[in-house]
Amino acid sequence: MKYTKRTFLLLWLVFLFAWKTSSYDIGDIVADFTLKNVDGKMISLYDYKSAQGVIVIFDCNTCPYSRIYNDRIINLHQKFVLKGFPVITINPNSPTLSPGDSFDEMVARANSKGYTFPYLVDEHQEVARSFGASNTPHVFVLKKESQGFKVAYIGTIDNNSRDASAVTKNYVEDAVNALLENRTIAMTRTKAIGCGIKWSN
Known about the structure:
Number of domains: 1
Mean pLDDT: 92
Distance between the termini: 28 Å
Radius of gyration: 17 Å
Structural class: alpha+beta
Low-confidence stretches: 11-21
Strand order of the largest sheet: 1-9-8-4-5-6-2-3
CATH topology: Glutaredoxin
Number of strands: 10
Order of helices and strands: HEEEEHEHEHEEEHE
Helix content: 25-40%
CATH superfamily: Glutaredoxin
Number of helices: 5
Oligomer: single chain
Shape: globular
């Protein structure tokens, strides 16, 4: 019996390690993906091959943190899209577990907020898993290089999830500005603050 328990525990740890290490880390090249946007069109990461990079944000309709950060995400896109770093938002939540994150609700949310950037549905949650996203919102700043899009920053948007006026560190802005100016990013990773992704299994 001890052997069986020990074997099971070992296999479980191997599974957890494999799942964790299979997700992207700083410096990794991101594989292309294609997901459906709220306008019904399919959008690929490599549709942005002429950009300097992209700001990928795993987001949703229902998380209070996502709602708090919503206007800040809109502002990020407005600030950086013309500089070559557009925002792409992706909803990874299972609509079965979170009905407020259904595709129809996503469309309504994008329309009500006037999104000018993609809001994609990760129906099978494969993209979120490949990135290693755990929360909404969870940000991945990607820099376009000759071999593809490279992960340059992972984490949260800034250092105050509750009050935008009290922010003293804008992690995503600082990372993108550093990339635009060919400087080293001072902080490449922070803890993502938000609600856990609603995984279907």
